[in-house]
Amino acid sequence: MKNHEFYIKKCLEIARLGSGHVSPNPMVGSVIVYYGEIIGKGYHEKYGSHHAEVNAINSVKDKSLLKKSTLYVILEPCAHFGKTPPCSNLIIENKIPKVVIGCIDTFSEVSGKGIERMQNAGINVKIGVLEKESRKLNKRFFTFHEKKRPYIILKWAESQDGFIAPKNQTKAFWMTSRHSRKLVHKWRSEEDAILVGRITAEKDNPSLTVRDIKGKNPIRIVIDKDLKLSDDLNLFNNDSKTIIFNQLKTEENNSTNYIKIEFNNLIENILEELYKQNIQSIIIEGGRKTLQSFIDKKMWDEARVFTTNKELKNGVKAPQVNREIVLKTEVGGDKLNIIKND
User: Fold this and answer.
1) CA-to-CA distance for 200 and 180, rounded, in angstroms?
2) Which of 140, 142, 258, 260 is least enclosed, having the fewest CB within 10 Å?
3) Exactly one of 13, 45, 53, 191 is catalytic; which is it?
4) Annotated catalytic residue 53
5) pTM of the model
């Protein structure tokens, strides 16, 4: 007999279909079960559109069956009016007698209110089925609301002898394989923003877009204290919004947004501003100085490190991070280590 975990796993599977499309909302999946048979399912497809529970309920052809069904969902149904009406209200209106939830929504507008509303209406609510997995899927959402900062991913590539760039680099230098670069573009499409420092912007002239795949471009963020960067750089095209953190001015110019911040406690000030901008996740792709500054402040959640078969013998040393490697794999001849800062 199929148990609660089986159906929550189904919810997790379909929730992932919303990856890269729903931020700043979480990815959510829902299924509706009538005597062991899934009669409805739905996921949150796009920010501003119907939530998973609404899509699941709408997919049920015979609505009379809802009165004898169980609704499964990985995240507590909302109780507030946002872009859409409260999902908990819809569940009550359709007289669904039982709801099984993966984890509580810690966003202050929800946080137990949806559960309380359904219980007050006589609905049998079960909480905490595959809670760890449900929270992990929405690690960006939970980090943002609980730590008041974006989920931070560090990414770099290093040679087999531990350098990230040649000494006295004057132009773009590709360390990884084509397959690895394509994967990086996929990662970019899944996050809200990407950040580099001024020197990386000057030497590499990156576009920081998702040219190699189909997907949305992240917001581009550059640290340029004294606004020394040339307007001719790729970062200043209109392919995506660009934020320039500096100490001189706050100004909007087409798709470029200059934001003046204090450079004392720089990392903390950047993260505070990103929180205000509702940016829930960011990839740090800067040079060693930028990457190491986040590491030294312990302001990061995971690192994705490529090691290539190239040997530079001299150059810019790779950042140093002393945490457990949770995954080792290979991409196009490059080794990839995923490191978590737990």
Assistant:
1) 19
2) 260
3) 53
4) yes
5) 0.90
